[in-house]
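Possible regression after last week's pipeline update?

I re-ran a chain I had predicted before the update to compare outputs. Posting the input and the new output here so someone can diff against the archived version. Not blocking, just want to make sure nothing changed silently.
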Amino acid sequence: MAILTEQVSPTIVKDINSLVARGNDAPWYVVLFNCNCHSADEVVLQLLKATDHSAKMCINIMMEAHTHGRAVAYRGNEEMCNRCAIILGSIGLRVEVERK
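New output (post-update):
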């Protein structure tokens, strides 16, 4: 299942903003960078494994990284962000854990 940009709902910005708003009190976050060596499905499946996000949110994060070069994939405490980054990175995705 390939996800094309024109197939993404216009609510992507609303969903991403919702993710950001929920994590405003979280001092750590995981940034996912665009990667041309993994399929969209691989990235979404790995996001599902690494986060507690819905499939729709994971698709939105994947598309944000694909179209803008990077996306906030997860927000939380340092331990949870490191856990998420390890899972995402286990298939070779490029990620960074950053502090707010």
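Follow-up from reviewer: compared with the archived run. The two ends are 35 Å apart (CA to CA). Marking as no regression found.
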